[in-house]
UniProtKB/TrEMBL annotation:
This is 3-oxoadipate enol-lactonase. Coiled coil: none annotated. GO terms for biological process: beta-ketoadipate pathway. It is an enzyme of class 3 (hydrolase). It comes from the Bacteria. The gene is pcaD. GO terms for cellular component: membrane.
Length: 258
């Protein structure tokens, strides 16, 4: 196993079912802040920083999607958790799909936000990795966050503080960690594998997401038996942060089904 010991933040009910929240490229565990108060009432919530992000170790890249999945399995082992719900956004969703295919015995139910099993062209991700290694994550923070939120959200002065918070989050991501994860995306193609997922799956798309539009999430749903699709209006790539009033109840409803 190629795992590193990722930084984890645990909250909620000590006797609750465990739900693991996996962050996007360029964010950290705080991207789920809008969900925590409600999720804590129902679950034992494990938020972690993907390798190369936040307070987690930053091994030299490139990474692979299996490396990221290994980190989650090692985290579950460290916590003594045999099986957990997995909720992931973008890169976190890619990790969740890999776990559900590769380690089905460790995965209960799955929620996939704004993600894809394949994100070509690979050269674009390799180029971004190179740019970040040379110029730093601060150089891309504004452009990245401009794709995370819908035009209406970005235009509202009331959201300026939140937008700046996320720009700072991207800029604080270690250059090598961000680049290594870009290379994991470049080398990933799970399209032929996700049909093996048996965990009950909810896929959620932001209607205004330019990176992983609703059609991408619909293709995931078509591949996974019994999967359901939710398209959220007035939301882009970081849909849980933009529309928590819609999304948080949807997470809870899906994870509490028997």
């Amino acid at each position: 196993m190629s795992a590193v010991e990722v930084a984890a933040h645990i909250s909620g009910r000590e006797d609750g079912p465990v739900v693991v929240l996996s962050n996007s490229l360029g964010s950290d565990h705080r991207m789920w802040d809008e969900q925590i108060a409600e999720l804590d009432k129902h679950f034992r919530v494990v938020r972690y920083d993907t390798r190369g992000h936040g307070a987690s170790p930053v091994p030299a890249g490139p990474y692979s999607i299996d490396d990221l999945a290994d980190d989650v399995i090692a985290l579950l082992d460290r916590l003594g958790v045999a099986k957990a719900h997995i909720v992931g956004l973008s890169l976190g969703g890619m990790t969740a799909m890999r776990l559900a295919v590769r380690n089905p015995e460790r995965v209960d139910r799955v929620v996939l936000f704004c993600t894809s099993p394949h994100m070509p062209p690979a050269d674009a991700w390799k180029d971004r990795a190179g740019s970040v290694r040379s110029d730093g994550t601060a150089s891309i923070a504004e452009s990245v966050v401009s794709r995370w939120f819908s035009p209406g959200y970005l235009a509202d002065p009331a959201n300026r503080t939140a937008v700046e918070h996320y720009q700072s989050m991207v800029a604080a991501t270690p250059d090598e960690g961000y680049a290594g994860c870009c290379e994991a995306i470049a080398g990933m193609d799970q399209r032929a594998e996700i049909g093996a997922i048996t965990a009950p799956t909810l896929a959620v798309a932001g209607a205004d997401d330019p990176a992983t539009p609703p059609a991408t999430l619909a293709s995931i749903v078509e591949s996974i038996a019994g999967a359901r699709l939710l398209v959220v209006d007035d939301a882009a790539h970081l849909a849980p942060a933009e529309q928590p009033a819609t999304i948080t109840p949807a997470i809870i409803e899906h994870l509490e089904q028997s």
